[in-house]
Amino acid sequence: MLSTAADAYTQEQQQMCAGDAVRLCSSDIPDVDRVTACMVRQRSQLSPGCGAFFREPEPELTPVTARRPLGIKPHKAVKAKKPKKPH
Questions:
Q1: Taking the model in full, what pTM does it have?
Q2: Of the four, 14, 58, 77, 78, which is 20 to 30 A from 35 by CA?
Q3: How do residues 9-23 score in pLDDT, each as one tens digit?
Q4: Which backbone phi and psi does 6 adopt, to 5 degrees?
């Protein structure tokens, strides 16, 4: 568990996000958990530098299950019937 607000973020994160935290989440300061939740809610309004720390998590990849190959066969060409010769 983090003991102080300064321990919650790296110095780089604090530097990049301090302005956004004050601008968007000042009512939640100094509660780090509330500021973090606020920053996540306000993600679309964060500056590009700070937004890099709060971007959407990558979707988890799910394993693909192996399935039987499809029974695809080439289509047989149908020969055109020759017209019958008149007798």
A1: 0.55
A2: 58
A3: 788 888 999 999 999
A4: -65, -25
Separation of alpha carbons 7 and 20, rounded Å: 18
62-83: pLDDT as tens digits: 666 666 666 666 666 666 667 7
Contacts of 46 (CB under 8 A, 6+ apart): 17, 20, 24, 39, 54
SS (H, E, C) 17-72: HHHHHHHHHHHHCCCHHHHHHHHHHCHHHCCHHHHHHHCCCCCCCCCCCCCCCCCC
Would you say 25 and 35 are in contact if contact means Cβ atoms under 8 Å apart?
A: yes
Distance from C-alpha of 8 to C-alpha of 48, rounded to nearest angstrom: 20
- Indicate the domain borders of the chain: 27-56
The three-point CA angle 25-32-55 to 5° equals 70
